[in-house]
Design a protein that fits this description.
622 residues; five-stranded mixed sheet; mainly beta; disordered C terminus; four-stranded antiparallel sheet; globular
Length: 622
């Protein structure tokens, strides 16, 4: 194998101290790449501490206690991630190998009962020092980020300044258990559930929760999925998976093409309207230029490489006629490319910060942009004409916007927001139509069904919610994800919903939900999931005011410019009524709260942001 093709896996760890057995490994990060391909895949795990002793990495230690995976699970995930690469005889590398690699070997023996990774790892810092150079990079001390940055630096130095004889990555037989010790002279506990000869079985894919009658297929469960896009015929799915772009056959549920020309992490993919091309956008975390590749969806042949962005490309969208391609980037710009010439035709940066998502309207005349915001500028969902003229925006003061999606009729845009809400925006006026509430953490993505009846949203709360657009009610909640939901796409016939996810310390899944045959109006969320229709009424007590507002939110969205009167009756029943006039709402609330019962009702007027604007019974607000 040539030096350019040799595969390298850089590892980096965070620990609670220097002595394995006494202290704990709290983070394990890895990145794989070659000189030719660059860094193309990553692994990350936050690991539960095995004890309370901590002298270093205190922040990582606290995160690991709260959010970490059991060590055995983390090591099995690491093995499962490395397995496809082990067949290509990679070399492991660390900086310094004398510290990082013994920890990994120790955890492998202790929790896997075997060591599928081998015992040798190249020490990157020692190799560079032998060349009279230093391994001089700034690191954020997050294991996966450190591994990726260090591997990028190592590969650049390797390409310019010499060669390293690859260290063989062979699976060794375990040493005699009686002689296996760790520092301090105590015997090392080795899990006996595993055999000496066989590496551990790959972990089972997560069990995603769905309503009765729905089927879900997990296509991939050891990668971070950033973006998905269906082909126009619905038979293929383009995927940005763990730093590479690929095409999957939907019927066969397998990858049929992997595009290998990117040298950095791939964040965005999009199928062309005719299904013949795929566009993919890359970048990294070092604020270096991102590129857009346009390639043949069958052969993988590169057609165009579009350069101009100065940072990572985060989103791509073809114009409906296929003549142009829109790209958004963290460099605070949106660019439109003429695919006939490969030249940039339009570029705009009006008040943008970090562009997370771009979308074309169905008629190709309007562009929607999700801006993540940057202090002190809030995030927003913005509308532009195809010529780059600004039209309108919807501001989100309490966080940025991570995703945008046009309804099939082009009448509204759904904005996936950091503040846990999905906002629907009128494309003619830019006004907010309604707000969908239910997610518990930031919403990363949104997608309309082809008939416009449904809206799917994916969140960092590890769920997908499917909403009825006409009523704003939650029809179902799809759970069981182990990490953030990053992307969603309906198939052209609306029968499938593709979902991808992943985050630091937890890899995600690529899943296909089967929606065909479901009674979409009647479906409820899985058992134990609270929806807008099943919310419990508020109860009496000192917290009844807060409970009432909470209940008001769960009753569903309020149209912009409308006001809702919530009334808590003496018997704890709640009623609500919406008004277009604030004065009418105040009058209704006053009348409701002035009834002559022994225990008058509580009545409040709430606006479309669920702020109390009038109190029919002021005493209870104190």
């Amino acid at each position: 194998m040539s030096q350019e093709q040799q595969l390298w896996i850089m590892v980096d760890i965070e620990t609670s101290g220097p002595v394995f057995g006494q202290h704990s490994m709290t983070e394990l990060g890895a990145a794989v790449g070659s000189i030719k391909r660059g860094v193309f895949d990553r692994f990350e795990a936050l690991i539960q501490p095995i004890g309370d002793s901590v002298v270093t990495s205190t922040e990582s230690f606290e995160r690991a206690k709260k959010e970490g995976r059991p060590p055995a699970v983390a090591m099995e995930k690491f093995y499962h991630w490395t397995f496809p690469h082990l067949r290509q005889k990679p070399s492991f590398v660390a900086r310094p190998a004398a510290f990082d690699w013994p920890w990994i070997v120790y955890y492998a023996w202790r929790y896997l009962g075997t060591n599928p990774f081998g015992f040798k790892a190249v020490c990157a810092s020692s190799w560079l020092e032998a060349l009279g150079r230093r391994f001089d990079v700034k690191l954020p001390h997050v294991a996966v980020k450190d591994a990726e940055i260090q591997l990028q630096y190592f590969l650049r130095e390797l390409a310019q300044h010499g060669t390293v004889t690859p260290a063989p990555s062979t699976v060794a037989s375990p040493p005699a258990r009686e002689g296996l010790m760790f520092p301090g002279g105590k015997p090392l506990h080795v899990a006996r559930a595993r055999t000496k000869q066989s590496p551990p079985e790959p972990p089972k894919p997560p069990k995603l929760s769905v309503p009765d009658g729905m089927r879900v297929d997990v296509l991939q469960d050891n990668s971070i999925i950033d973006n998905v896009s269906f082909s126009p015929d619905g038979r293929r799915l383009a995927v940005s998976m763990a730093g590479c772009a690929s095409v999957w056959d939907i019927e066969q549920r397998r990858e049929i093409l992997r595009y290998g020309e990117h040298t950095r992490t791939v964040y965005a993919v999009a199928f062309s309207p005719d299904g013949k091309l795929v566009a993919s956008g890359d970048g990294d975390d070092l604020e270096k230029p991102g590129t857009v590749h346009v390639w043949d969806a069958v052969s993988g042949e590169t057609k165009l490489i579009l350069k101009g962005h100065t940072w990572s490309v985060t989103s791509l969208a073809f114009r409906p006629d296929g003549a142009e391609l829109e790209s958004g980037s963290l460099d605070a710009s949106v660019r439109i490319w003429d695919l006939r010439t490969g030249k940039r035709s339009v570029s705009f940066m009006k008040d943008l910060s970090e562009v997370k998502c771009v979308a074309y309207s169905p008629d190709g005349k309007t562009l929607a942009v999700a801006d993540d915001g940057a202090f002190p500028r809030p995030g927003f969902a913005g509308l532009w004409t195809s010529s780059g003229r600004f039209r309108a925006s919807l501001s989100v003061p309490d966080g940025g916007v991570h995703g945008v999606a046009f309804s099939p009729d082009g009448g509204c845009v759904a904005a996936a927001c950091e503040d846990t809400m999905v906002r629907l925006m009128d494309t003619k006026t830019g006004n907010e139509i309604c707000v969908l509430r239910g997610h518990e953490r930031a919403v990363n993505c949104a997608a309309f069904s082809p008939d416009g009846r449904l809206l799917a949203s994916g969140s960092r709360d590890k769920t997908v919610r499917i909403w009825d657009v006409s009523s704003g009610q939650v029809l179902m909640v799809l759970g069981g994800h182990e990490s953030h939901v990053n992307c969603l796409a309906f198939s052209p016939d609306g029968n499938l919903l593709a979902c991808g996810g992943g985050e630091h310390y937890a890899t995600g899944v690529l899943a296909i939900y089967q929606l065909a045959g479901l009674d979409r109006k009647a479906h409820a969320a899985p058992a134990g999931t609270e929806t807008a229709d099943s919310a419990a009424p508020p109860v009496a007590g000192d917290n009844r005011w807060d409970r009432m507002i909470e209940h008001a939110r769960k009753r569903g969205p309020i149209a912009g410019g409308h006001f809702r009167v919530m009334v808590l009756e003496a018997d704890l029943r709640t009623t609500h009524k919406d008004f277009t006039s604030l004065d009418e709402a105040k009058s209704y609330a006053t009348d409701a709260a002035s009834e002559s019962d022994d225990t008058p009702p509580i009545a409040v007027v709430i606006d479309s942001d669920f702020r109390v604007v009038f109190e029919g019974k002021p005493y209870y607000a104190s």
